[in-house]
Amino acid sequence: MWSGAERMGLNVKMYGEWSGGYVVTPKPGGGQYTWADYYIPLLKAQDAAGAVPNLTIIWLPDDHTAGTSTGYPLPANYQADNDLALGRMVEAISTSKAWSTSAIFVEEDDSQDGVDHVDGHRQPVYLISPYTVAPQSPGIGRVIHTTYTQENVNRTIENILGLAPLTQFDLTASPMFDCFQDIPNLAPFAHVPANTPLNIGPGGVPIAGTGPANYAMRMTPVQRAWNVASNAMTRGKQGQADSVDETFLNHVIWYSATHWKRPYPGEARIEWPAAFIKAAARKVPDTDD
Asked: Which of 71, 140, 182, 210 has the most crowded Cβ, counting Cβ within 10 A?
C-alpha cells in the first residue's frame, strides 16, 4: 500500500512497520540505551515541520511485551503504555491543522494473545475521524456490527487516498461505508491520563532509573523462575517481533495478567517454565514473517 501511495506521488512516512529489526545509535558518551532512557527522554519532541504525510503508518510495539524480564515493564504495564501513547497521538492529530481531513485506523496485532472463545482471527478495530458516525452516547463512540475483514480496511484507505486495489481481494471488498457520515464533527479529542503505572517490572517495583521504589512485592519461587526464564528467552530479541516462542510468552503473560492466581486455560495448575523452554528448543524456527 505504501509503495502504491508513493507511485501516485503521495507522501508516506513509516514508523517501524515491516522493518525486520532496528539499529540504535549508541549514547553520545558511549553505551546502549535502556528502556528507562526512553521512559524519561532527554530531548523534547519537536512539532511537525508543517507538511503532514498523506499516509502515515505507526507501529506501537508494546503489545508484544517482554514477558516478565528484568529491566522491562510487566505485560499489563506495557499495555497501559500503548493505550496512553494512542490517546496522546489522537489528541495531537485532532488539535492539528490536518484534523479536518484525517482518518485514523487502529488495529491490534496478535489479538487476544491467542485464540479467544469465539474465533482467534477476531480483532478490535477503531476508526477515528471527524467523519466517523455520531457516537451512541457522549464520549462512547459507536459499535458497528457489520462483519469486516482486513481487506475492507485496506479498501477504505485506498478509496480515501485514491489508490488502486492491491489484489483481487480488496478489489471486491466493500469500503466501510456505515462507519462514516457526511457532516464532520471537528471537536478535538482529549486523552485520558494513565491510571496504571507504566514502569513497573518484576517484583512490583519501578524499573531502575525511572523513579524511586515506592513499594515492593516479594516474588514467589514460581514467579522468580518465570522471571529468570523470561530474561533468557527474550535476551537479544527485543528488536524483532514474534521472535520469542509463542507458547512460552502466552503463559507468562497470562500468569502476570491474572496476578499468578489462575492456571492457563485448559490446564489444571500454574506451571513452571522448564517444560516450555525445552519444548521451544525443539521447535523448527518459523520464518514466514
From this structure: 210
